[in-house]
Amino acid sequence: MTKAVRGARGTRGARAGWPVRGGRAVQGGRAFPRPGTAPARWTTDRRWRHDLGTALLCAGLLLALALLVDGVRGSLDVPRAALWLGLAALLHAALHPVRTGARPGELRTWGLIRRHTVRTDRLVSLTETGGLVPRLLLRDTSGHRLSCETAVLTANPLLWHRLDTDLRTSHRLGLLRTGAELLERLEERVDREVLGEGFGDA
């Protein structure tokens, strides 16, 4: 568990002899909402709104500049305006940031069209790809897969803390066959990020 964000774990209870995980009673491997308990809230990437604003700004600037140039040249008409609007929409689609969120037992990514979810307390594999934008690849016991940028997790200690807790549960249960060493390296990166922010705010 990350040292800089380690806190007390949520308490576990029982209802009618069923174990409770993340606010849900578990019976026979299936989770049911616990009466009177709201679903756990998602912890999401704190930079996502800024990145979304940047994507919208770039698309808006392209559209405004194209319309301005055509307007000055006197070549602006409905078909050309529709063309520039379409290009601006394509640019936004290309720049639109994927949103990453975690809550007890789950990690999810939301794109413009698709979303992916894995059970983080039932992971069997955790690997990292190289390249210009390193990404984490996660796979759970049901075969569900998810890919997210490593930088998103290391820049969001609270998000990482939720994931780290479940990763260690998977490791303790003997499910996580690949990724134990990577888990330790990621924890060190998050600690450095938190310490860096602390010195920056001092």
UniProtKB/TrEMBL annotation:
Keywords from the named record: Initiation factor, Membrane, Protein biosynthesis, Transmembrane, Transmembrane helix
Transmembrane segments: 52-69
Domain of life: Bacteria
Region (Disordered): 1-20
GO MF terms, alphabetically ordered: translation initiation factor activity
The name this protein goes by in its record: Translation initiation factor IF-2
Organism name: Streptomyces evansiae
High-level lineage: Bacteria, Bacillati, Actinomycetota, Actinomycetes, Kitasatosporales
